[in-house]
Each structure stands twice: as C-alpha cells, then as structure tokens.
C-alpha cells in the first residue's frame, strides 16, 4: 500500500486530520488497531471549545453536534459554601462551549469517512514506524480479528506495509508512534498529581444546567452531564483508591458536602458506571522527528480539570493539516518545519491552565491552613470583577482554531 500521509489512530485527532486532509485533496489512510464498536464506545472527554465546534462545522461534521450538543454560556466555581458563576460570552466577546461526548464526535467523523473517504482500516495495529529520517517512511501493521466483547484483538493476518511521505502519529500515549522516537530525539516533561478522580455516570437528570466545579477543603468535586438524562460526576480521591472503596451512597454523601451551596440540592439516581483515574501531565518536545509528526495524546497529556485534551488534539491536527496542505500545493515544507513550535505554544498554555485549575481546586495530601488561604485568595480573585476573571474565561473557552 502507498499514500501521502499515513495516519495512525482513529481517535479524535486521527479522524479529524483525515477529514481535513481529504477535503484539501491530500491523499491519506487511517490505520486503527481496534474495531469500530470499541472505538465508538470509549467514554472520554465531553466538552468542545468554541474553536473545536467551529472546526467540526466547517468540515461538514457539525450536523448532529448542532442538534444534540448542549451549548453552555457559563460554569460555576464553588467554594466556602458559595456559588460563583463565570459568564463566558460577556468575558470572551461572545464565545461559549458545547457539551457533546467524544464518543459522538468519533461516531460522526467515522460515519463521514466511511461514506466519503479516505480509507479507514479497523483492526490494523501498527507494529513499527521506520525510515522517518528519510524521504519515504514505512509503516508496518498487522490486521487483527476483532476481540470478544471487550477482549483484546487477536493477531490474525500477515504483516503489511504502508509506504508514505509523512506519518501522523495520532495513536495516543501508548501508541507505536512514541515507540518509534529514537532515544534522545525528544524531551519528555511529565508530572503525576498526588490524587485521582473517582467518576460516576448516573441515570438521573443533571441537577444543574451548567458545570459545577467545587474546590472544597475535603477535595475537588465536579458536576457535569453526558445528556439531559445522564449525569457525570467526579470526586477527588487519594491515589491508589479502588472503585470498590466507595459504595454509591458514600459517593453521593461526599458530593453533597463538596458541592453544597445555598439551598441547591443534588438529585441522586442509579450509578451506571464507576471508575478511578489518575491525573498526569506530559509534553513531548519537539512534537516531530523527521517525517513523523505527533498530535493529540501521542504528544501531550493534560489532567482533565480543564477539559483540554480533546480540544488540544483538534488544535494540533488543524495546524498539521494546514502544514501538509501548504506542502502538497506549494512544495514548501515551511509550515511543516514550524509545526512543533506552532503547536507547543498552545500546548503549554493549556498545560499551564490545566495545572492551575488542578492545583487550585484539589486538596493535596499534607495541605495546611496556609495552603488553603492561598487557594481561597486566588479563587476570590478569579470570581471577582477582575482581569483574572476574564483570563479564566478566555482560557476555559479556548482560542479560535481557524
Ligand atoms: N496502531 C493503530 N492504532 C493505534 C495503535 C497502534 N499501534 N495504538 C493506539 N492506536 C489507536 C487507539 O486504539 C485509539 O483509537 O489510536 C487511537 C488514539 O486515540 P485517543 O487515545 O483518543 O487519542 P487522540 O485522538 O489524541 O484524542 C485525545 O482522547 O484520550 C482522550 O482525553 C483525551 O480527549 C482526549 C482525546
């Protein structure tokens, strides 16, 4: 097989890149290790910045988003028993965010790609990315039979190769692209936070129309929603916590304490899923080695506190698509050569904002009264009529991508 751009991974980054390149007339192929059902079922992020939603609309993938997405014009920060609403349009010149699950973004992009191209191969696990220092990189992959219900795929067919001009590594933080980086070729910045999130999906209508982020002395809590009938809620727990440590009633009781504000009441309902995930940050610099360019989780990870993961992935691939299209039409690699620097400015901005929202709203082990006073002082500035509030809203709503 041969193509111009080999895209590894059919997550949001790989799928949006394929859509943008296809519409620009740049030949590409997407290789995805898992089967379609698995990829479309993976619960991940759920909030699109204005810029990300606009990109989906601009490339013809915004229909269902506009019909089913929940447009949010603000969110609340809660601390000391008080609720402080942050109004996005008035602080950002009209920008909003949209709640639309990543699973739905992926379904929409897959449906478009299967209908209109470019080729999307499921069950195609990349096992090596070679010759990225040369003019003709080579991607080796094996086709796999879909696993059982959730079981791993079983290696099936013979090894195949995809020759290309460039490789887009959109295969997440455990993919083949990172493994293809020669030792010493990149710097990895990493941070692991001293706490985790216990998340539940509950079969109950949200108790608020907007997101509620609580920075309680006992720890962080988040009230969000998947759909108008399903609530998504999280509490900070110690690293090493197992979901079994927290019976449903204990979770609801803790959410009541941490999210309390005035006479607001949290509605309870059956817990459908319960899971614990750690909080970590990673940045790979540069986001490129030779003819291998990285995007999305393959290049960086952010803690979920500011919901930047999906939006950063979109920012990367909009930049990458622009660079490949410029090269395809002019022969100039100037934008490809500036790809990593152009992405990393936005990546570090999102890292800084995610880090601030994480340390501001979580209570680390061993925190004392001074630490708490620092958090409350910062929270009061961010929720007052100050320039800090405008900066918070700008960071939360994100910058335009096109
Ligand atoms: N060969 C082929 N495909 C692979 C390989 C491989 N060796 N390794 C991983 N993949 C696939 C995975 O199966 C997955 O579908 O690459 C895809 C990577 O998708 P994501 O992990 O969703 O990463 P990305 O597209 O960058 O999206 C980032 O996803 O993890 C969340 O919070 C994150 O919302 C953010 C978004």
TrEMBL record:
Name by which UniProt lists this protein: 4-hydroxybenzoate 3-monooxygenase
A Pfam family of this chain: FAD_binding_3
Annotated organism of origin: Streptomyces aureoversilis
Domain of life: Bacteria
Entry keyword set: FAD, Flavoprotein
Domain FAD-binding: 2-353
InterPro entries (alphabetical): FAD-bd (IPR002938), FAD/NAD-bd_sf (IPR036188), RIFMO-like (IPR050641)
